[in-house]
Specification:
alpha+beta, 4 helices, 6 strands
Length: 167
């Protein structure tokens, strides 16, 4: 009996230590500015889907960097790629988002599934996406957009576009 009680005690203590070592993230209330940057990020995905390079030109910093699976390039090449449809971002299914603030910089980290047409073929790829926005002259400009591939354990759902996550 004493051995069983000791085993239970060790098991419970181990579980407590494990959860203490790896705390679960706690949801936090976003500031007004953080909510606004998420809305701007959502608008950006819509502008990309609509190939609205005029709005994107206003948003992208002239020295922005865009990192894709095939390499990286600057603002003008990104705008040309979107406008001509070399890569047509059709839909961003946002699964999770977080916003971090560092001075006059906002960082949006997203987990998503991106539907795009690449080389005439429609593809759905899972990504982690990092967007960096810099506040200049009272407005935010995107200075970086980085796609990192991620693995999924199951195929993405088929069907129509999903709704935006509520911020």
């Amino acid at each position: 009996m004493k051995k069983i009680i000791t085993s239970y005690f060790v098991l419970i203590a181990s579980a407590i230590c494990m959860f203490a070592q790896f705390p679960q993230p706690q949801p936090r209330e976003l500031s007004v500015e953080e909510k606004a940057i998420l809305e701007l990020s959502h608008d950006k995905w819509e502008w990309m889907a609509d190939k609205n390079v005029e709005e994107l030109r206003k948003l992208f910093h002239e020295n922005a960097v865009f990192v894709h699976m095939g390499g990286f390039w600057g603002t003008q090449q990104e705008l040309m790629t979107i406008e001509r449809g070399f890569i047509h971002y059709k839909h961003a299914e946002l699964l999770q988002e977080e916003v971090r603030t560092a001075g006059n910089t906002m960082i949006v980290n997203s987990t998503m599934r991106m539907t795009a047409v690449v080389g005439g073929n429609e593809v759905v790829n899972p990504f982690y996406v990092t967007e960096i926005y810099l506040k200049e002259g009272g407005e935010y400009k995107m200075t970086a957009l980085v796609f990192t591939s991620r693995m999924e354990t199951q195929a993405p759902p088929q069907g129509g576009p999903q709704q935006r996550p509520q911020g």
